[in-house]
Amino acid sequence: MYTNALIHETSPYLLQHAHNPVNWYPWGSEALDKAKKENKMLLISVGYAACHWCHVMEHESYEDTAVANIMNKNFVCIKVDREERPDVDQVYMNAAYLINGNGGWPLNALAMPDGKPFFAGTYFPKANWIQLLEYFSNLYRTDRAKMQEQADHLAKGIRDIENVPLNESNVSFDIKTLNEMFDGFSKKIDMVKGGTVGAMKFPMPATWEYLLQYHYLSGNNDALKAVETTLDNMANGGIYDQVGGGFSRYATDASWHAPHFEKMLYDNGQLISLYSHAFQLTGNPLYKRIVFETIGFIKRELTSPEGGFYSSLDADSEGKEGKFYVWTKDEIQKILGKDAALFDDYFGITDRGNWESGENIPDINMGERDLEKKYNLTHDALLQKIDSLKMLVFEKRKERVHPGTDDKILTSWNALMAKGLIDAFRVFGDTGFLASAQKNIDFLLKNISAKNGGIYRNYKNGEATIPAFLDDYAFLINVLISYYQVSFDESYLQKANNLTRYVEDHFFDKASEMFFYTDDQYSDLIARKMEISDNVIPSSNSEMAKNLLLLSIYFENSKYEDQSTQMIKNVIDDIQKTPGYYSNWAQTMALQIPPPYEVAIVGNDWQQKLSELQKNYLPNTVYLGGDKEGDLPLLESKLMKGKTMIYVCENKTCQRPVEDVMEALKQIKAR
User: Fold this and answer.
1) Which of left, alpha, beta for 625 (phi over 0: left; psi -120 to 50: alpha)?
2) What was the pLDDT predicted at 102?
3) SS3 489
4) Mean pLDDT score across all residues of the chain
5) b vs e for 233-254, b when ≥16 Cβ sit within 10 Å of the residue's Cβ?
6) Number of H helices and number of E strands within the chain?
7) pLDDT category of residue 120 using cuts at 50, 70 and 90
8) Where does 385-449 show beta strands of DSSP type E?
């Protein structure tokens, strides 16, 4: 059996390739120095453990000794886990976009020995891959100068992408700005199936979070309808694991039916937050069920014994995508007997199959309506019956070969999941959710903290090895602020502030007043990039803009507030023109229309009053307090002996303190 240098890595994705005949190296000085020393081209192949087409290309090409020989002879071959090294992925993905106008994974980039790419693409069938490698190997021997010229030109293009200029003009925005943004964006929303018009459909939680916030501020019911339509169709569709809970990464069709079956931690963490907030506004029991089932899935399948959260579940099992999740009608019949007909009708299970060759993805949207009448059941009795049948199918599914788990622990994704748990606790009051969040945050602070005041991105087998990127800091800071707002433990807020100072020192770009993605102590790539637009995960710059605004309130830090405002000014045109790709920016902008309420609760009974308040959807409200005044400026002189008082403040001016939660809510809602 072949063994290459990846055998010493901890990433499950890299370890999958440790026995390929390709002489893979991990990204690092050993491979880069070797390329320069031997004057060899670099072949940089980027993927991730749950990626279906990454597996296909491995089986077709990287496990083939003839292909491996061509790769080894002409290139220094580097394998990259994009989830561990998004900085590397970002640079070479930009190359793919500049060359082809699109990208994706697996990403395969060819570069000069100095790391500058001259070619990049995605999946290649074996014959095409061999042809490509031989073409560039020959060109490198015969016309190296031409390739270097192309690489220099491409490197400049990569450096110029998302180069944000400082906006020094006067900018103002108000509720009218948000209304105009919605008028434009609403034309792209699928008001029948939810999501944006067309296929493929990604959940994009930050988009719908923003529209909930916009509805709250404007009263625009079309915005709420867009969110409800999306959440209903996703919850009832095949993208949601109807048997075991949790969402897949995206749907390949316009109806949320056929998922790309991998399940990612970051999607599920954000969707728990989103469905919790939607429940606050609507009281829809479907949303509560989705939150509890999804948290159940995370607890069961993506939680480490120490309280960390694993990254993902693979799309494939037994070499076939989706095999773990799909059913034939006969299989359901054998499990459920006389009750199979009800299950089939409810989830759209047919002889022909609703997916591929007799196989079915359980999907409520594909099922029949009016089953209460057909089976003479009340609505509640139907749901109870379906729950019991689902449990039987779930137990049978446990006997199948389980999809692989990518069990590395990433700081940014863990923070998103912990935030989801905190939001669910706020809404539903389940103390188990809060305990899991606290355990996770404490686990991170213990295991990913670096001696220089910074943090690491990854943790596995007792090791944290990769210095953190901006998203790791941004989401960890945000969840520390969120945890303070339910615990009133100031040590977490102070930690958020300390990490923000570290980010200011090591990521800040004075020219644009934005933040680079990489720490200035660990930036060894051909370009130092920024992450600006929001995608399936909000961008690290938009999250930092939000954090700076929140921390400016807690610490009365006007510099933070000015910085946050400047960052929004820098991208204001993009926010207004394409809010779908700047939705987390839009949330931060909306936090200033009008400025957030500061709700201080001080006294022994703070927990109960806070709990009552936080059951309400109040997106433009920050909370602080405790049984003592603590060290925050806003809490000074607010303790009244023997009483628990609620102070609703705005712009550092407080209304009359009240003891009753309903009175406080009237003050919050009476702008």
Assistant:
1) left
2) 87
3) coil
4) 95
5) bbbbbbbbbbbbbbbbbbbebb
6) 26, 20
7) very high
8) 405-406, 409-410
Per DSSP, helices labelled H in 115-165 are 126-142, 144-160
- For 260, the 3-state DSSP assignment is strand
Q: Work out the average pLDDT over 178-205.
A: 95
CA distance 344 to 323: 18
Q: How many other β-carbons are positioned within 10 Å of the β-carbon of residue 399?
A: 7
Q: What is the C-alpha separation between 614 and 423, in angstroms, rounded?
A: 9
**Cβ-proximal residues to 382 (8 Å cutoff; 6+ apart), any chain:** 371, 372, 375
Provide the pLDDT for residue 523.
82
Instruction: Round to whole Å and give the CA distance between 279 and 656.
Output: 30
Coil, strand, or helix at residue 31?
helix
Is 483 in contact with 492 (CB distance < 8 Å)? Answer: yes
Which residues, 6+ apart, have CB-to-CB distance to 362 below 8 Å? Answer: 238, 242, 243, 327, 347, 348, 349
Residue type, 544: M
Confidence of residue 1 (pLDDT cuts 50, 70, 90): confident
Task: Quote the distance between the C-alpha of residue 39 and its chain's center.
Answer: 39
185 CB contacts (<8 Å, ≥6 apart)?
579, 580
CA angle, residues 573, 574, 580, in degrees to nearest 5: 140
Q: Classify residue 453 as left (phi > 0), alpha (psi -120 to 50) or beta.
A: left
Taking alpha carbons only, the member of 626, 631, 628, 671 closest to residue 648 is 671
Give me the amino acid identity at 488.
F
Structural element, H or E, at residue 514: strand 514-515
Amino acid letter, 473? Y
Tens digits of per-residue pLDDT, 79-104? 999 999 999 999 999 999 999 988 89
Residue 652: predicted pLDDT: 78
3-state per-residue secondary structure call for 285-300: HHHHHHHHHHHHHHHH
Rounded to an integer, what distance in angstroms lies between the CA atom of residue 656 and that of residue 402? 58
Q: Could you tell me which residues come within 8 angstroms of residue 104 by beta carbon, excluding any fewer than 6 positions away?
A: 53, 122, 123
Question: What is the rounded end-to-end Cα distance, in angstroms, of the chain?
Answer: 71
List the beta bridge partners of residue 327: 360
Instruction: Round to whole Å and give the CA distance between 643 and 48.
Output: 55
- Beta bridge partners of residue 121, listed in sequence order: 108
Q: What whole-number distance in Å separates Cα of residue 26 and Cα of residue 7?
A: 10
Work out the average pLDDT over 649-660: 91
User: How far is the C-alpha of 538 from the C-alpha of 584, rounded, in Å?
Assistant: 6
d(CA 635, CA 600): 7
Which residue's entry shows tokens 């694991």?
Answer: 241
Candidates 609, 651, 654, 659; CA nearest to 636 is 654
Residue 496 and residue 567 in contact, taking contact as beta carbons nearer than 8 Å: no
Determine contact, residues 551/496, Cβ cutoff 8 Å. yes
Mean pLDDT of 502-526: 94
User: How do strand 514-515 and strand 405-406 relate by DSSP bridges?
Assistant: unpaired
* DSSP SS3 for 321: strand
pLDDT tens digits along 551-584: 999 999 999 999 999 999 999 999 999 999 999 9
How far apart are alpha carbons 589 and 583 in whole angstroms?
Answer: 10
**Residue-wise burial string across 139-152, b where 16 or more C-beta atoms lie within 10 A, e elsewhere:** bbeeeeeebbebbe
CB-based contact 480:133 (threshold 8 Å): no
